[in-house]
Each structure stands twice: as structure tokens, then as C-alpha cells.
Fold this protein.
Amino acid sequence: MPVGGIADGAVYGSHANESREAAMPVVKLRGPLKRLAGGRGDHRVEGATVREALAALEAAEPALAGWILDERACVRRHINVFVDGEYGREDTPVGDEARLDVLPAISGGER
């Protein structure tokens, strides 16, 4: 470590948060889930798997607790999760720049 304790390549100042956010997955919410999250559709979270990322989201947005993950930390049956456009489940890996789309199932139609 250089003199003064600053590591090479470290980011400080006003751009530090931007670099950190850029390396975090983003969870995209729509419809009623977006409303529960205070109207925000995009949420940057930490997590190496879908389960970890969604648990971090529920911790950051308490009104979402129980709506996406059940009491066993499994994705609820009426919720679909896509990681970078591919269907994902709890143990699906999530990269630093991944996009997780969380969509409530849509039912209805004509009989």
C-alpha cells in the first residue's frame, strides 16, 4: 500500500458511489411491486444469486417483504424473475452488472 494508506486504483470523492453502483445488479420492478417500493422501478442491490439480490431488495424496501420471497426465501409462485432476459430461480447466479426483472404473474382472459 502506498504512503498515506491509499491503494492504487481506489476511487474516492464524488465518483466513488457511481463506480460502486455501476458494479451492482439492478432489480427492475413494475406494477404493484413498483408501487410498494415507493414508485421506484430500478433498485441497485448486492447479491451473488437471485435469492441474495431479492433479499437485499426486501431489506432495503421493507414494504416489499413477503411479496417476492416467501418465509423460506423462495421466489413466490406468482412471481417470475428473469436475469438478463433468461428465466431465473433462487440459486441463479447474478453478475455485477446483471439486470433482474421481477414480474408478477398475469392472469385473466376470456373463457
